[in-house]
Structure formats: C-alpha cells, structure tokens
C-alpha cells in the first residue's frame, strides 16, 4: 500500500532546493562581478587610472587590486609586462618627494612580477628584460641601520645601495634581494634565498645568505651536472592552435592498464 507523502516534508525539500538555487546564483553573480572589477581595475597604458608612471609600455598590465604604489613619475615599466595582484612598486622613501630628473625604478620588457611581490626603490633599482619573479619576492635598495645602540632601529637613517638584476633571471618564491645586489644574466635564485653582493652570469644561488650552488662552464656545461633531462623544445613552426588540438587529443587517449589490451602492446 503506498504511503502518503508528508506535505510539510515536501514543502521543506522545495524550500531547500530554492535556497540552494539562490546560493548558486548568488555565487555565480559574485564571481562574475569580481571578474568585472578585476578587468576594470587593471592598469594599462590606455587605462592608467590614478597612476601616472614615468613610462608604461604597450600590453603591460598591473592586475587589480594593486599593492602600494607611489613615486610613479620615477617608475618606468617596459612593454609586455605582467604585474600580479597586490604588487608594491615604490620610488623614494615616501610619497610626494621630488626625486630629480632621472628614473629611480626601471623595469624592462617582458617582466613578470608574481602576486604579493615588493620592489622598494629608495635609490636606483633596475630589473632587466624577461625577468620572472615568483610570488612574494622582496627587492629593496634600502636597509635599516643599527649603528647607535641607544636609538630604536626604525628611527636611524637607513643605508641605500643600488640594485641591479640582469636580463633573463628567474627569482623564486619568497626570495629577498638586498641593497647592493648585482645579479648577472640568466641567474636563478632559489625560493627563500637571501641575496647580497654580486652574482655572475648563468649561476644558480640558494640559501640565506645565498651562495652559488651551480654554474655554467662553456666547455663542461653545468657544474655540478644537472640531474634531470633537458625539456624537449616545441618544434619550429607549430602554432598555438595545433598545440591546443594536440592537448585535446591527448585527453581523449585512454590510459593503458594491466587489464587493457594496450598494456601488452
């Protein structure tokens, strides 16, 4: 004999379904709204907003929300740069200073600064072309002094030294580049490293303080030798459309298992 369905139970299920639908709709609306805010709040050469950089190259974008930015008339950004969310870029010790005729912070073409990174240029900081920073990298040309043991460190006049990062460098997550650091071309800085002084071209540095752990020799190659095989380069002439098609084809290929006929072939 069929059981009678409880009317209150049915109403509760219907109410729960409506509430779940409203939550899903609200979630979609919030995400769509945030994407619109991110797109509208991004800074480019065509849409600088309140920021007036000394220069900003074509196709360079500062993601929204931006971090602390001041002294922008003395900041020059190259072309095709990607500045992640919450990245701080400052020139001078504080806002509204006259820093003279020359730029203080120079960022080359094709530079990527990861989310939450800081570049503090109280004196000259130069980042070469095609440098890639992971998240939360800290670069500063200023350090606190502690000469006077009777005065709080924060109240003592800081020391400043220029910083130069050569082209093609990769700076890992949470690395710190200290005043006076001079990195050569194609240097790799390991995550969490603290770099000071000079680093030669084509070197890998790690640790705190950072030291060279691998370097390139024109005759012997990398020393110590690399422990992983070199990546296979994409053949010349392959288009982005072909790569996408290949990726879709790979997703459709069944994975061979011990039970499948492909496993024994």
TrEMBL record:
The GO terms this record gives for MF are: O-acyltransferase activity
Q: Tell me which GO cellular component terms the UniProt record holds.
A: cytosol
PROSITE patterns (alphabetical):
HEXAPEP_TRANSFERASES (PS00101)
InterPro entries given in the database record: Hexapep, Hexapep_transf_CS, Hexapeptide_acetyltransf, Trimer_LpxA-like_sf
Keywords in alphabetical order: Acyltransferase, Repeat, Transferase
Per the record, the similarity remark reads:
Belongs to the transferase hexapeptide repeat family.
What name goes with this protein? Answer: Acyltransferase
Q: Which source organism does the UniProt entry give?
A: Streptomyces boluensis
């Amino acid at each position: 004999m069929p059981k009678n369905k409880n009317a209150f139970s049915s109403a509760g299920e219907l109410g729960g379904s409506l509430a779940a639908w409203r939550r899903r709709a609200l979630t979609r609306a919030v995400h769509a709204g945030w994407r619109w805010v991110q797109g509208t709040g991004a800074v480019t050469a065509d849409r600088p907003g309140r920021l007036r950089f000394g220069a900003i190259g074509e196709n360079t974008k500062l993601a929204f929300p931006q971090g602390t930015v001041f002294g922008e008339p003395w900041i020059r950004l190259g072309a095709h740069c990607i500045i992640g969310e919450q990245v701080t870029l400052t020139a001078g010790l504080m806002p509204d200073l006259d820093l003279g005729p020359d730029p203080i912070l120079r960022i080359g073409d094709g530079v990527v600064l990861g989310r939450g990174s800081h570049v503090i240029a109280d004196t000259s900081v130069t980042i070469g072309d095609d440098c890639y920073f992971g998240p939360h990298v800290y670069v500063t040309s200023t350090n606190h002094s502690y000469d006077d043991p009777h005065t709080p460190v924060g109240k003592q006049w800081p020391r400043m030294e220029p910083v130069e990062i050569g082209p093609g460098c990769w700076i890992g997550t949470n690395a710190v580049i200290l005043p006076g650091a001079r990195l050569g071309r194609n240097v790799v800085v390991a995550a969490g490293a603290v770099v000071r002084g000079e680093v030669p071209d084509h070197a890998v540095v790690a640790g705190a303080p950072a030291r060279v752990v691998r370097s390139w020799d024109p005759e012997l190659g990398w020393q110590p030798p690399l422990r992983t095989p070199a990546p296979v380069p994409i053949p010349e002439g392959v288009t982005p459309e072909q790569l996408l098609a290949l990726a879709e084809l790979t997703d459709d290929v069944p994975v061979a298992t011990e039970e499948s006929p492909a496993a024994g072939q």
